[in-house]
Every structure is written in structure tokens, then in C-alpha cells.
Write a structure and sequence with these properties.
Length: 211
């Protein structure tokens, strides 16, 4: 008979047994699900992600900026574990947003990316789970598409930014600008290079690149 989480009543009255590694409160193998489009497949074992630590938090980020998302596990009473993604990379595009009228971290901003007829949406979040927070950089997998055909950004301030086709395999820093003559302007700079570009409904301009 179970009493609470991770405790089991023994034969004696009010006697609790320590079920240790069989506890319902941790030390169960982690699972990792792969999105196959129309279903999910459990792939933790084949990726060495089915670890037995008492996991409590999970952060998703591209720690080495190679376009493949990595996992950082926060465990209870044991060191954190970084699982690097060594899989075959496909095309991708990334975004880091900087707010001007909105909060500087652009928390709450929504980004939509189109490849062909497919739209994907990501939201900038300040926290993603218990004892963890993933990167605020947004990552979009593009599959076999060599570019993002269209990008829309909906800022918390209410402004909207539209960007033209962006080359895959790169991360872009997008800076929200104040409203100009009734139109919203935003600067987009390629992270780690001197490529700069900006576009709004009314103006196209180059903005300074800074890190």
C-alpha cells in the first residue's frame, strides 16, 4: 500500500518502508522523445540519455553554437549533467531578440518562421521549468530547407517586424526599434559576423552591430 509519494506502508501499523531505488520520487530512467511529425518515438536508450539520476530540472540550449540543441540536466544531490547533441545536423536558423519599446530581453515576444507552406512558432520565455531555464535564443529546425522564407516577430509592445528570406545555418540578432512614421523598424545582424540588415514595412536600413 502506498502512502504519499515514494513511501510504502509495511505490514506493521503505521510502519513506513524505505524502498530506496524503487522510490516513485526519482531515480527512474529519463526518457527522450523524438518528434517524427505524426508521432513521437522514445529514443533515450539509443542516445545514452536514459540516465538514472534523480532529475529535477532540464534546460535546452545550443551550448557550442553548432546548430544542434543540447540538454543540461539538474539532478538532486548529484552533479548536473550536460548531454551534447552529436547527431547529424540539418538546416536551422536561430534568433536572439533585443527589445527597445518592449523589455530588453524581449520576454513574451513571438516569432513565426515559414519554410514553404509550413509555419513554426516560438515564444521567448524567462523560465521553462522547475529549477531550470533554457536559453532565450530561439531555435528553428528547417529540415532540408536551405533558408527561412519569411520571418514575423510580434513584440510585447505591440509592434510587428517582418524580415525577408534568411539563410539557414546562422543565428541572427534582431533589435526592436521605436516606431518611425507609423511603421515599425527592426535591425537584424548576423551573430559572429559583420553582416547587417534591417527591414520594416516602410524602411530598410543598416544598424550598428554590437555584442
Amino acid at each position: 500500500m502506498l502512502e504519499g509519494v515514494g513511501r510504502r506502508l509495511g505490514a506493521g501499523k503505521d510502519h513506513l518502508l524505505d524502498i530506496a531505488h524503487h522510490s516513485l520520487n526519482g531515480r527512474e530512467r529519463n526518457v527522450l522523445w523524438r518528434n517524427d511529425g505524426d508521432r513521437f518515438t522514445e529514443v533515450a536508450y539509443v542516445n545514452a540519455a536514459d540516465r538514472l539520476e534523480d532529475g529535477r530540472g532540464l534546460a535546452v540550449l545550443d551550448v557550442d553554437r553548432d546548430g544542434r540543441l543540447d540538454l543540461l540536466l539538474r539532478n538532486y544531490r548529484s552533479p548536473a549533467v550536460l548531454l551534447r547533441n552529436r547527431g547529424d545536423g540539418r538546416h536551422w536558423v536561430g534568433f536572439e531578440l533585443i527589445g527597445k519599446r518592449s523589455n530588453r530581453d524581449a520576454v513574451g515576444a513571438r516569432v513565426r518562421v515559414r519554410t514553404g507552406e509550413l509555419w513554426q512558432t516560438r515564444v521567448v520565455e524567462a523560465g521553462s521549468g522547475y529549477l531550470s531555464a533554457g536559453s532565450r535564443r530561439l531555435h528553428f529546425g528547417l529540415g532540408e530547407a536551405p533558408r527561412a522564407d519569411e520571418v514575423e516577430i510580434f513584440w510585447p509592445s505591440g509592434l510587428r517586424t517582418r524580415l525577408p528570406a534568411l539563410e539557414a545555418g546562422r543565428s541572427y540578432r534582431i533589435t526592436e526599434e521605436l516606431e518611425l512614421a507609423g511603421a515599425s523598424a527592426a535591425g537584424a545582424s548576423l551573430l559572429g559576423s559583420d553582416v547587417e540588415r534591417a527591414q520594416s514595412d516602410a524602411e530598410v536600413d543598416a544598424l550598428p552591430h554590437s555584442r
